[in-house]
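Troubleshooting log. The previous structure file for this entry was overwritten by mistake, so regenerating from the original sequence record. Sequence copied from the archived sheet and checked twice against the printout by T.R.
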Amino acid sequence: AAGKIPGGFIRREGRPSEAAILACRLVDRPVRPLLPKAWRRDIQIVATVLSVDHENDPDVLAVIGASAALCISEIPFDGPLSAVHVGYINGELVLNPKLSDLENGQLDMVVASTGKAIVMLEAGAREVSEEILPRAIQFGFEANQDIIRLQEQVQQACGKPKEAAPVSEVNPEAASAVASTIGDGLPQILAEADKSIREEKLSELKRKLVDSLGETYTANDILAVLETMAKAEIRKSTLVGKRLNGRALDEVRTISAEVGLLPRTHGSALFSRGQTQVMTIVTLGSTRQEQKLDGLGTLETKRFIHHYNFPPFSSGEAKRLGSPGRREIGHGALAERALVPVLPDGEDFPYTIRLVSEILSSSGSTSMASVCAGSLSLMDAGIPIKTAVSGVAMGLITGDNGEYQVLTDIEGLEDAYGDMDFKIAGTRDGVTAVQMDIKLKGVSLEILEKIIAQSHEARMFILDRMNETISTSRTEVSPYAPRVYKMTIDPDKIGSVIGTGGKTIRSITEETKTTIDIDNEGIVLIGATSEEAARKAISIIEGLTKEVEIGTTYTGKVTRIFDFVAMVEILPGKEGLVHISELEDHRVDKVEDVVKAGDEVTVKVINIDNMGRVNLSRRAVFEKDYQPSGAQARDSAGSRRPFRRDNDSYSGRRDQSGRRPPLTKDTFRGR
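Regenerated output below.
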């Protein structure tokens, strides 16, 4: 699609890339709430990119294509839906901005909606004002309407008759029996603030119900009834202002934070919010460790990487451990997007940065806890981020008559039984990331405005708690982190550092145990585990690229001895010659009487001839009134040795007019 042959040995597409997985999630999330909840048959949507122009992101086309395919199929679907990109560039909202334009933009938001309401949001921003978000959402919603009308026309022209949507019903007899057995015990169990105690009590209740009613009803019927009753109880109590564990609707759970817990890592932080707990670890590397992205576009590199791991034990389960799933990749990308805007430029901080968020305990909102832990760990690692970033997950419970309640900092059951998961992250100055998923057929702009406004207070509260632990980045990186040093050389000298086939640069890295990266502009980045190793590499590179200057004193090593000359290496790979007359302030018969091969000697550059040969003097270093002698004196004066001629020679003769006489056979007779 992009006119490229895939990389790798086999030159064939392999498993989906991270970008492809994120695009799949972008399709799945707005489609899912529009399908029947009781539908049990598999639905597979395959979106294939056939052509890409490198200017327009094809992800929203995949959403529109999936919607159109479902509309003309027999599958019950409450669509059509559409999705567009909305950018905020130079103070203006832009519909489907080009990828190149977004480099200077403050906001890139995907707005997915039906003809009536918003169903999904996904955004990355550079500390954009919260006041811009509702405007961008409304702008995208209105732009979607033309695409939705087009799909409706396609559906009318070639759509298949829809199947009847299945209805999920519980066994009424089982429901009555379960209700009689439980009595008033369920609300008390659900009001338990401690997740582990609550789940233990629910497990005990499930066993009791199955034991007492299992001979009459199936276990699936019994557990389905209990699930329905728990969901109804939580929603009913929330709508009248009563939350799990007694929190207020806009109250954030108890927060604690620690940094520097792991002594040998480059940076670490533990962030706890209620019973959700995340440990984030920072690792720094050289620029050559940047992640290479070989996708539909040009080959790119990524210097900041955030990985999110959700092990089974964090939610009290025992499952097979494997490679990260779509959810883990999506949550990791969301937290990464939230933190990117506060990172220092690569020129100011030439490191590759990897964050790994390990979910130690999960009770809702782990992705936003990863944002908070990530911000804290970056500061602990000495990475000079602009400011701290916090995130919070907002929820929504709606009633049958249009009533609703917005919840701040939702936890596990509120997420599972609620209607929305609205994640928002940012700094004190603005928003850096948004992600919204719903279980309704859509949500109004009025509700979204209330959620955004209520989330601001929560984010500021969380930032205050984080700043009590660490408010600014440490002044230095960890002593265990590699040191990256930056120097600049003349671009014309890059070849001197690299050498034929990379021979020179390999020898430097092997000798100094460092890594060296050079770009086309002559910027050299040296990665080393110690300052001594870095300084040694810098010294060698300076020697390879530095120009020899007349009058400068150097200490070098004698490399070769000739009859009247000693060759001295004054800079790496650069030699000069010391004539025997320039070794001492008295006559020297043999060069070996003063210096030998391998000796270290201090010399001064007295001349560089037209062929670039460097003439050195040892005598000039210690003689006060030094005067070059012999050939050195003539070369220093810039004159050639005069050609000696006898006065009676032909070339010396002149007639009275100053002209030479004509050449004859008798010209040189008599000599």
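Residues 132-158 form the longest helix (27 residues). Archived copy saved in two places this time.
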